[in-house]
Design goal:
heterodimer, A: Rossmann fold, Rossmann fold, 3 domains, six-stranded mixed beta sheet, 18 helices, about 25% strand, B: about 425 residues, mainly alpha
Chain lengths: ~525, ~425
């Protein structure tokens, strides 16, 4: 039997970049094939070619033994190829049923939408694959994990049997990830075939039958999980040996640098996003804030950095209250902020790299003499930082938009870490970055901690929080439900808290610590 | 912590690198506008041809005498654009003769006559430059100042008032005062929507449009009432000679110091935007207000400042027109400078140098239009069509990219000109 899908010598040239260079890939029936690679390795380009969004310059796509030309998503769907995008393509105010039938509407009497029949079909698909969802629920009310189920149902509703999942676990809690994996296994059991795009090594090893690693637009190798290891995969992805664990000495916490007391903050829709939060961060320690995205971490960080008004409560940095301070005043107290949305908040994409490196110090000597910008000083400092922080850029004069995500983040890190700082607030500092950049940024954060900087790290990546933190606070629905020492912490316990289980109940299901260490709860 | 496996980077001189980057960016930036102008001129030629009776007649016999039809087309377009060129730059032969006469006899009359077209084009370009800079400065801060027209009116009235009201001052005091009054008039008028935006978030597009109408009606009233010169016409009195911007040549040539003032202002605006910390803030607020806030910049302060400076430039444009060219203000005084300015800022990519070049182009088109009408019988509207086409192509650069098979500039192109309309 021929493979359900075969890519032969796919080549795609973009101006200045060979995004795909003679890529061969086969997908057997009932196979889970993981596509692993750093950002910019060519995964997305390849899948967009498969989905008809780009035309390859060279090469051939063969579906079930037949050569195919795919000119757009409609062609792809007609061939049974369906894609679940990383960013969901759902219409939030519409119901599940309406979203599923969008574009392939069933009608009664040639005029009226046939909700009933569609809902029925959704029910069938749900039961078959364990994709529980209420067809009448409005998308906006559903948790992210359920929204993803709707995306999968959408693809199955269109009778696709070759599914492409693009970074499907990025937005899920550990429990939701486990559930997704069950669904995936159910899908392949019933004869569907699946391409699973990821940059997480563990996931690829856990669920894939075969793993293809891409680097710089080329296939490095295709391997089976039993014949490889995380370290080997990482080395294939990056092209060199990578340190996968963050090496760090035990923390030696000093004085309290950041103290938060009974903090209440509203979000943009004027709902209570931070609901009575109290904690402290000491010099030389990392406090990690774990939690699924959208549980108030964003608003908490914005309140701490002066970007969002505080409704009630106290924030004290180095002994001075900062509840009503402006972002600049907080900045000048020695607070560095690596923002969650680096392109939205942290950079001006159209500006050259050197301007972005002085984005918040441009008005201070030596970068300015009174009102006048000192260009030489800016360029000299920028050139030095680019060297020191290993930012890969042709020069400091090119717009920062032309840099890769990892290098953009390094620009922010270089800017923030090169100032004399007492407190570092890092929100999702490695989101969407490749293994090499993650390793680099993690080491820099630990280096700052060891220099005596207080670090607050907010990240939905539980592995990252555990690796970097000395203490971990779990945030759920605007509240910190528990703070535990990171040493020997039980991931399952944190996962339960992140999913909204009360600490008392979570303790019964999973102990907070797996290794025996002295329990020094903060409160 | 060196991870750059063996790849040693030989750093060339930073200034040399910068020059290279800047030039390649400049080329990218100029490419689309230049092709837009070229395309507009080509389409303009087609319009000239199909509206020419002789050409149309020649095409009736296209299949029997195709050469004749093509010749007629060429003739029509050549006459029209030849006249346009003569109207905007002057007749080179005439100029050559005039110089010869001048060298031989010191007779200046023919020389001034030969210089008339080009000086008139520069006179037309002067308010364009300043008004274009006004819109461009707003764009740089992410503001869409549609109120340049109204600010132009207020600037004109203010500088005219100082010009005719103060009668005993020496030029050295009177002229700067009148120029400043123009800038101040425009600045104050723009400060109102700027303040409203900063304070209440009211969108500047709506408020500047309303301020335009207030300015129009206010000027109607002033010109028919308090500021009216004796007589029937709704115009202000002539300004005092001490408030006039000096002219370079004897009458009727009107080219004056205002043109140099416009060029100097463009240089100052460039310096301000790209070499000062305040300019950096304004550009950051315009390019990414969230990043500006993150970096500790005061967004509302920059909004108000950019609006006030934009209004001052609009007022300055009016001052050069009043004090340098007209010497009085009448009803319907502006020929839509404030609206053309939007096109100029777009065409010039909100860069001072670009605005100057765009304004010179528009100045020459306007200057040549009259001549084209009188010499070649081509309606003056053809110039409006060409200008409109330029604007269309600038607003929809994909048309140009598609026509000339250009690939999209990567990231560099994305200068955000204005924020969303919703506020």
């Amino acid at each position: 039997m021929p493979p359900v899908l075969e890519l032969r010598g796919i080549t795609k040239q973009f101006p200045g970049v060979l995004a795909n260079d003679h890529i061969d890939l086969t997908l057997e029936k009932g196979e889970i094939h993981a596509l692993l690679g750093e950002n910019g390795a060519g995964k997305t380009t390849l899948m967009n070619i498969l989905y008809g969004l780009y035309q390859p310059d060279e090469g051939q796509i063969v579906v079930r033994g037949q050569p195919a030309t795919i000119h757009g998503p409609n062609d792809a769907i007609a061939l049974g190829i369906g894609m679940v995008h990383q960013h969901f393509m759902l219409v939030p105010p519409l119901t599940v049923t309406e979203n599923v039938m969008l574009g392939v509407e069933s009608v009664r009497n040639g005029l009226f939408l046939d909700h009933k029949r569609v809902a029925q079909r959704i029910g069938e698909i749900s039961r078959q694959y364990g994709l529980e969802v209420d067809p009448d629920a409005v998308i906006a009310d559903l948790p992210v994990g359920v929204q993803q189920r709707v995306e999968i149902i959408k693809v199955l509703y269109r009778a696709a049997d070759i599914l492409i999942l693009d970074e499907p676990t990025a937005v899920l809690t550990p429990q939701e990830v486990e559930r997704l994996f069950q669904t995936i296994f159910a899908l392949v059991e019933r004869g569907n075939s699946l391409i699973f795009i990821t940059h997480k090594l563990k996931e690829a090893l856990h669920i894939a039958n075969r793993i293809t690693v891409l680097r710089n637009g080329r296939v490095v190798d295709t391997v089976t999980p039993d014949r490889t290891s995380e370290a080997e995969l990482a080395a294939m992805m990056v092209g060199r040996k990578v340190e996968l664990v963050v090496r760090k000495k035990p923390a030696s916490p000093g004085d309290v640098v950041l103290q938060v007391q009974g903090l209440y903050v509203l979000d943009d829709r004027r709902n209570l996003a931070v609901n009575g939060v109290s904690f402290e961060v000491r010099a030389g320690e990392v406090l990690g804030i774990a939690g699924v995205q959208g549980n108030g971490q964003t608003e908490l960080v914005q309140a701490l950095t002066g970007l969002r008004p505080v409704m009630d409560g106290e924030i004290t940095i180095l002994g001075s209250p900062v509840v009503r301070a402006t972002p600049r005043q907080i900045l000048e107290m020695g607070v560095a902020h690596v923002p969650e949305d680096r392109q939205g908040d942290g950079l001006v994409l159209s500006f050259p790299v050197h301007d972005n490196l002085v984005l918040n110090t441009y008005y201070l000597p030596p970068f300015a003499n009174g009102l006048i910008t000192q260009e030489e000083a800016v360029i000299a400092t920028a050139s030095r930082l680019v060297e020191e922080f290993d930012v890969r850029t042709p020069s400091v004069f090119v717009p920062v938009s032309t840099l890769s995500g990892g290098n953009q983040q390094k620009v922010i890190v270089a800017r923030e870490f090169s100032r004399p700082i007492q407190l570092l607030i890092a929100a999702q500092p490695t989101r969407g970055l490749d293994v090499g950049s993650i390793e680099y940024i993690h080491n820099r954060i630990i280096q700052k901690r060891d220099e005596g900087t207080a670090v607050l790290l907010a990240s939905p990546e539980l592995d990252e929080v555990i690796a970097l933190s000395d203490r971990i606070a779990v945030m759920y629905k605007g509240q910190i439900v528990d703070i535990v020492p990171a040493m020997g912490v039980n991931k399952e316990y944190l996962g339960l808290l992140m999913a909204g289980v009360k600490p008392e109940e979570a303790v019964r299901a999973a102990p907070p610590q797996v290794e025996e260490i002295e329990m020094e709860r903060v409160f | 912590m060196s991870t750059r496996g063996g790849e040693s980077r030989e750093q060339p001189q930073p200034t040399a690198v910068k020059r290279k980057v800047v030039w390649s960016q400049a080329f990218q930036a100029v490419l689309v506008p230049a092709l837009a102008v070229l395309t507009a001129l080509i389409i303009g030629a087609v319009v000239i041809a199909i509206t020419d009776a002789a050409v149309v007649a020649a095409y009736r016999n296209f299949f029997t005498a195709p050469g004749k039809a093509l010749a007629a087309t060429w003739q029509a377009v050549r006459t029209a654009y030849g006249a346009l060129f003569q109207g905007s730059f002057g007749n080179p032969q005439e100029l050559y003769q005039a110089v010869k006469v001048y060298v031989a006899t010191k007779e200046t009359g023919p020389l001034w006559q030969a210089l008339w077209p080009i000086t008139e084009s520069l006179v037309a370009a002067t308010p364009y430059i300043l008004a274009g800079l006004a819109v461009a400065l707003g764009f740089r801060c992410g503001l869409f100042n549609i109120g340049v027209e109204g600010q132009f009116f207020m600037g004109a009235l203010a500088s005219a008032y100082i010009g005719y009201r103060l009668t005993t001052l020496p030029t050295l005091v009177h002229l700067p005062l009148a120029v400043l009054a123009g800038a101040l008039g425009g600045a104050l008028w723009a400060a109102i929507p700027g303040y409203l935006k900063a304070r209440t978030g009211a969108h500047e597009v709506v408020n500047t449009i309303m301020m335009n109408w207030i300015a129009f009606r206010l000027s109607d009233w002033l010109l028919n009432g308090p500021m009216k010169a004796p007589g029937y016409r709704p115009i202000t009195p002539q300004i005092e000679p001490t408030a006039e911007l000096p002219r370079f040549f004897p009458a009727p040539l009107r080219l004056n110091v205002g043109f140099l003032l416009a060029l100097a202002t463009a240089a100052v605006v460039y310096w301000f935007l790209f070499k000062t910390t305040t300019g950096f803030e304004i550009r950051t607020v315009g390019a990414n207000p969230r990043a500006a806030r993150y970096a500790g910049m005061n967004i509302t302060r920059n909004f108000v400042l950019a609006m006030v400076l934009s209004g001052a430039l609009a007022g300055l444009a009016a001052a050069t027109q009043v004090l340098g060219v007209d010497h009085w203000v009448g009803q319907g005084f502006s020929a839509g400078y404030g609206f053309d300015a939007i096109a100029l800022a777009l065409l010039g990519k909100s860069h001072p140098l670009g605005v100057v070049l765009a304004s010179l182009l528009f100045g020459f088109l306007r200057g040549g239009a009259t001549r084209m009408q009188s010499l070649a019988g081509i309606p003056i509207d053809i110039i409006s069509i060409i200008q409109a086409l330029v604007i269309v192509f600038i607003a929809a650069p994909d048309i140009i990219r598609w026509l000339y098979r250009l690939r999209a500039g990567r990231g560099i192109e994305e200068l955000v000109l204005t924020r969303g309309w919703g506020g």
